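User: Hi! Is it possible to get a structure for several chains at once, not just one? Here's what I have:
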Amino acid sequence: MFGHTAQDKQQQLAPLPAPAEATPPATANRLAIVLFSGTIDKLMSASIMATGAAAMGMDVEIFLTNWGALAFRRGDYTSNTRVSADYADYRGTLLEQMAAKKVTSWMENLEGAKEIGNVHITACSHTMTLFDLQLSDLEPIVDEVIGVAAFIEGARDSAMTLYI
Amino acid sequence: MASPVMITREIDARGSYCPGPLMELIRGLKSALEGEVIAVISSDPGSKTDIPLWVQKSGNELIEIESLDGGAARFIVRKHVRK
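Assistant: Yes, the chains can be modeled jointly so their relative placement is included. Here is the combined structure:
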């Protein structure tokens, strides 16, 4: 039917030969995080993951894109009470409980992670250009502005990669 | 009978949330001398998994975990001695 034979299908499904330069096995002792979100629920998750990885001796590479980069504008974190729209119902409870229980902020978590481990935080050049930002416009915890290829190159063999 | 362990410093991290108590322990051990013993009290249930794992991974020694009232626990850890 439709001009295909069983043999055609066989050929279509045959595995492709491995590229000459195959991706290295994901074994580097590194956690890579693409931090796309700028809402505190997700920033908090990312900061806790980064801290846990740093504590367990993993290198951590965090790439800030879009709203993630904007959340690192100087001083922004002190007044950021944004919560993902998906979880807007919980915004009041989250803010209330975080204040009542004096939970450390995501920025403090990241500072702690840097203190105990090898944590490298970079900002996406595309986002920086889009929003007319310079490295000096971001919190000093951000190490540098890089392009996506540099992040990918550093992340390609990471044992874990998260997109938050 | 073994002589009681001499605790150099005790950090009360009750009311601090994961990974706060672990961070307190790491900081405490960083500033301790080799062979010194540090205690951390945590009320976060995650510490019961995280602290023993970290201590093992980092080559330090977990001497004891004591259960305290209210679900808290005291983790007694000796800083490793470099050979």
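Chain B touches chain A at residues 15-20, 22-23, 26-27, 30, 50, 53-54, 57-58 (CB under 8 Å). The two ends of chain B are 27 Å apart (CA to CA).

User: Great, thank you!
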